[in-house]
Design goal:
Elements: H1 30-50, H2 63-80
Helix pairs in contact: 1-2
């Protein structure tokens, strides 16, 4: 009956990689910036509707909604990285 070759002794056993260091806290400007983006985006959209589509920038029309939503999304994306 053939014998098993066994494990090659020259190969080192598996060692897991070292744990990464703990997540570092955000800079002090992070929270005020994302709160400002959220509030500014909300105000931009509200002003657009309340002013009957004349403000904040009347010449770009419906793109005012796009600007408001971009500001909101920027704030929401920043909240996901907040620690």
């Amino acid at each position: 009956m053939p014998e098993s070759k066994g494990r090659d002794r020259k190969v080192a056993a598996y060692t897991p990689p070292p744990r990464s260091k703990a997540a570092e806290p955000n800079p002090t400007w992070w929270a005020p910036t994302f709160i400002t983006l959220l509030v500014l985006g909300l105000l931009w959209i509200v002003v657009y509707y309340v002013s009957e589509y004349r403000y904040p920038i009347g010449s770009i029309g419906v793109w005012n909604l796009g600007i408001g939503f971009v500001l909101l999304m920027g704030g929401f994306i920043m909240t996901m990285r907040w620690r």
